[in-house]
């Protein structure tokens, strides 16, 4: 965000690809040097980010919903990190401690099981929903999402 690049030739295009690749590597190196070993992302990351994450030992979980991000922020007390512009030198403002992180395969779905340390009174627990067909899973997931939304509302302070 905050960076615009205008490409007018093949040479400029190659140079911009090198620049983007260099920025991806610098960002992952900065995360790793800041002690980050797991990146939870609300968007799908570019191939270069995934490549450098593997190279530098940073695990990436992509495409988390806004509700999942909000719940993680509530549990950990950490705000989402959103770099702006060409800022690649600043430190990592906040990070949460994960007790564990391991892959989880549920049928054909690849998931991740993360144990987060809590900065609030909530002691998170694990819940895995399984059903014989996707429709039932979706119904259970929708009901659970409603319950989690209600819990998030309980954590909000009253003005």
Automatic annotation (TrEMBL):
Coiled-coil residues: none
Species whose genome carries this gene: Alectura lathami
InterPro entries xrefs: BBS10 (IPR042619)
Gene of this entry: Bbs10
This protein's name: BBS10 protein
Any one biological process term the GO annotation gives: chaperone-mediated protein complex assembly
